[in-house]
Structures are given as structure tokens and as C-alpha cells.
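In response to the reviewer comment on reproducibility (Comment 2.3), we provide here a single inverse folding case reported in full, input and output, so that an independent group could reproduce the run without further information from us. The C-alpha cells appear first.
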């Protein structure tokens, strides 16, 4: 009562576990606490008559206040435990909501990407038809039917431009159209980002005008800002994880070898997906995927991912001297 009524003084008490009658060594400021005198005295083995005499001398009011403080302390502890449990459940719920939103955006992105791939395949088909048409135009020209040749050439050009425009619009919608407020946030040095076309997240080291240097594992890449979108910080960063691309044997400049060693399975699958997508678009014929032997986890993930593609004719491991089952060779249709 003195502390309650006196300015500059506050009540405080050391928290006590009344169930086991043991101290917790936690100081609770702001409220008084019971001394647990009778409980501790009983635990130490004082005779019953001494305990009864002490209770009689303390009086009913003193005992009532002490019991009230004990009840308040117990109820406060129960409330704090329930609040802690609810806070933890709320965090888990927020995490589930974020995961759901991420999955929804990823599903929408994949749906648009499949549509884009179909259009790009159609553009390749048009290109093949154009080659046949050009052959026909040459034959017609040789037969002196110039008007028919011009008409066919015009039709081919219009069709090619139409498909190209559709592909460009789809690509813009898939990779550059914002899907949430986070995606339109200005990217700054130190932010974690990823490419709009997919892949592992990295951290922005420097920004120069409309380009940024991004560190992904041990690899540094210069990427246009418009090709980047914000990403969450990786939960488990592996400092030695990197993607090493070495062999170039395709006329389009596409690098047909990729090294996934050191990557987590989830990151390896994302990098592999982007690699195979680009390979299919570049009309490559043979791909070499290095994943190492180890416990075989990466090899299984690579095999599982490759089964999703219809444009693959053969998947096999080379001879032991060329890497054995630590390397997967992919032959495309």
C-alpha cells in the first residue's frame, strides 16, 4: 500500500512457481506479489501447531490479501501463456497466408508462361512455314508470276508480324506486369531480388542507371532493373552455392552446360527450369547437366523435373570417365 500511494515508488515482486514452490528468478515490476510464507513454511516441515498459531496471529484480512495476490499471479501467468500461444498461432497463420499468396502468384505466372511458350512455338512453326513459302515464292518468281510471289510474301510477312506482336504482348504480361504491390516497389542496393523469368534469389550490390549487379550465391550478374522483382531473403544461405556455366556449343549463343552442385534442391529445380526453357527456345539439341553424385538427391530432382517436358527425346548418364551418374545428358526433339 505504501508503494501504491507514494510517488516515485512502484510495486515489484519476484515471480514464484506456486505449483512447485520454487523461484523462477524473474522480476515482475508493476504489481505486488505474495511472499508465500505459509506455503514455504509448510514445505520446510514446520509443525502444524506452529502453522496454525501463525495463521491466527496474521489475521483473516492478511491471509485474504495474500491468497488474493496468489490467485492474481496464477491468473496472470495463465493469461500470459494463452497470449503467447495465440501470438504464435497468429504468426503461423500469417506465414500460411503468405505461402498461399506466393503459390497463387506462382501458379498464375506458370499459366501465362505456358501460354507464352505455346505462342513462341507457334512463331517457330510460322518460321518453318515461311521457309517453305519462300521456296514456293522463288519457284513462282522463276515462272515469271511476280504478282503471285508478292502476294504470298506479303501474307507471310503479315502473319509473322502478327505472331511476333502476340508473343511480345504475352512476354510483357508474363514478366513485366506487376501482380501485387510488392512487385512495383523501387529496388534499392541491398534488396533481395529475383529475375521475373524465375531462378534463385540474389542480393543487389550496386545500381547504375537502369542496370544492377546482383550476387546469386558466388555468381555476380549484371541485369536490367526491369527484369528484376523483389524477393524474400533466403532462409538458408549456402555461401558456396553457385551456378557455373562453362561449355558453349550452340550457334545462338545459348550455353548448353549447367552446374547445379552446391545448390539446395528447391533452388536447383528453379535454375534447371529456366535453363531447359531457354534451351527449348534456342533450338538446342544436347544439354549437359552437372549435379554431382553425393546422396543422389539432386539427381532425382533433375530427373523428376525433366519428366515434365514433352520436348525431350532422351535422358541418360554418360560413361564413368565423362562423369557417370553425376551428370545427366538431355537430347531435345
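Designed residues, in position order:
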Amino acid at each position: 500500500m505504501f508503494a501504491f500511494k507514494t510517488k516515485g515508488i512502484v510495486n515489484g515482486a519476484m515471480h514464484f512457481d506456486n505449483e512447485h514452490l520454487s523461484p523462477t528468478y524473474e522480476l515482475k515490476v508493476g504489481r505486488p506479489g505474495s511472499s508465500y510464507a505459509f506455503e514455504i513454511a509448510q514445505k520446510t516441515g514446520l509443525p502444524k501447531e506452529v502453522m496454525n498459531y501463525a495463521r491466527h496471529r496474521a489475521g483473516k484480512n492478511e491471509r485474504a490479501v495474500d491468497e488474493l495476490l496468489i490467485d492474481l499471479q496464477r491468473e496472470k501467468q495463465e493469461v500470459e501463456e494463452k497470449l503467447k500461444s495465440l501470438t504464435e498461432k497468429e504468426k503461423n497463420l500469417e506465414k500460411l497466408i503468405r505461402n498461399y499468396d506466393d503459390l497463387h502468384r506462382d501458379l498464375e505466372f506458370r499459366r501465362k508462361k505456358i501460354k507464352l511458350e505455346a505462342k513462341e512455338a507457334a512463331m517457330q512453326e510460322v518460321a518453318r512455314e515461311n521457309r517453305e513459302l519462300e521456296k514456293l515464292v522463288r519457284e513462282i518468281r522463276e515462272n515469271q508470276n511476280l504478282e503471285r510471289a508478292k502476294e504470298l510474301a506479303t501474307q507471310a510477312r503479315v502473319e509473322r508480324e502478327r505472331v511476333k506482336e502476340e508473343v511480345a504482348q504475352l512476354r510483357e504480361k508474363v514478366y513485366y506486369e506487376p501482380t501485387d504491390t510488392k512487385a512495383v516497389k523501387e529496388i534499392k542496393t541491398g534488396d533481395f531480388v529475383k529475375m521475373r523469368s524465375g531462378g534463385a534469389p540474389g542480393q543487389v550490390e550496386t545500381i547504375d542507371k537502369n542496370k544492377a549487379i546482383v550476387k546469386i550465391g558466388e555468381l555476380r550478374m549484371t541485369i536490367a532493373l526491369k527484369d528484376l522483382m523483389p524477393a524474400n531473403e533466403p532462409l538458408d544461405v549456402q555461401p558456396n552455392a553457385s551456378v557455373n556455366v562453362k561449355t558453349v556449343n550452340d550457334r545462338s549463343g545459348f550455353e548448353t552446360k549447367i552446374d547445379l552442385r552446391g545448390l539446395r534442391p528447391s533452388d536447383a529445380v528453379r535454375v534447371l527450369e529456366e535453363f531447359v526453357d531457354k534451351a527449348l527456345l534456342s533450338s538446342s539439341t544436347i544439354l549437359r547437366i552437372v549435379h554431382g553424385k553425393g546422396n543422389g538427391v539432386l539427381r532425382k530432382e533433375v530427373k523428376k523435373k525433366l519428366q515434365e517436358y514433352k520436348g525431350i527425346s532422351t535422358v541418360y548418364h554418360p560413361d564413368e570417365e565423362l562423369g557417370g551418374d553425376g551428370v545427366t545428358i538431355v537430347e531435345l526433339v
